[in-house]
Amino acid sequence: MIKAPVSNELFERAQHTIPGGVNSPVRAFRAVGGNPRFMVSAKGPYLYDEDGNRYMEFINSWGPMILGHANEVVQEAIQAAVPKSLSFGAPTRKEVEIAELIVSMVPSIEKVRMVNSGTEATMSAIRVARGYTGRNKIIKFEGCYHGHGDSFLIAAGSGAITLGVPDSPGVTEGVAADTLTAPYNNLEAVMQLVEANKEKVAAIILEPVAGNMGLVLPQDGFLQGLRNLCDQEGIVLIFDEVMTGFRLAPGGVQQLFGVTPDMTTLGKIIGGGMPVGAYGGKKEIMDFVAPAGPVYQAGTLSGNPIAMAAGMAMLNYLNDHKEVYQQLEERTSSIVAGIRKNLQDLGLNCTINHVGSMFSLFFTDQPVVDFESAKTSDTALFGRYFNSMLQRGIYLAPSQYEALFVSTAITEELAQQFVQTNLEALKEAVN
Ligand SMILES: *Cc1c(COP(=O)(O)O)cnc(C)c1O
Q: Is 146 a pocket residue for ligand 1 (Cβ < 6 Å)?
């Protein structure tokens, strides 16, 4: 039984000076019950908390730690960069090199701008798409997360396929009105939106594999259908690959599924654990960005030398070791097969979505293809399962609506340990 008195005390203190006690809401355990654990260090597949507990890790900082924690390749690059100063506010060689590397890896990107987070990348990308097309509206999908920019915090109520409604206080109705939403995997709904807003839609933005409603895959023809529609209507197609970029393939989903967007947003893995994002795309679109063009976007710490050193080391490693993706796929398949067998043995009917090193176990017997179907999950059961896993030293994302990430630090032996623990936790959770 894992106890966490120090974490509990820190969480109590934290709530006096930090909203909700955390610096990002997903870290709180509100959806699953209990208090978050406060981490001290991590190495390879393991996290260590303030109470000296060890957890096998399937969040990996929400994606970046694809090589496991404190990987030497990234750590050494950072250590080498630190003595040369932490920031210049002037261009550096590394920024040229990382831009060239990203362009060589990601099919859609001919030019790229570095920023400091995924949120900044998506906010900037739609500004550029609007500047480029001279149009105001964007289409996003229910259940897709694109960071916390105002335009993205919009949900469609049932049938609200014309005007968005702000999903968060502080987002103005004006912003909401420019954000149209459609159900994921529903090409027909997107076509209707475009038809009803002729020549007004600047961009369609989506996670080409969605990881923020749990893992949801694009159905056959969905991505290509969007590509064709955007070509016909002069709409900028933006793949938000903040999560999937460098994770599902060196060139992301666009490489894996062979559909090329006009623009791509990146984050997470691109910084190797440092705060980095990027957006890029066709030259003619990216040349609208200042100082080449009129769309303003800037950043005091953008292209930061320490962050670039970390990102370069990470991307170079992945680019030079493409076998990593096959290994991750096999390891994750082995975990997923094990969970399926457990479910069968227990007579449970659940849905597992899986691609590459990402998977989600949904506590529903329905196929999960969009946010509506994801929401049929039994979240109370998920909460019990999550806590049973935590008690047994396995750290999962504290929400049913998240994907899990497998890192290269998870050996086959650890994968089997996960499967065994999963069986015990499922048993406990259903009883
Ligand atoms: C995490 C994420 C973001 C936001 O990135 P931050 O670095 O947290 O701002 C945007 N889009 C997707 C798909 C993400 O998974």
A: yes
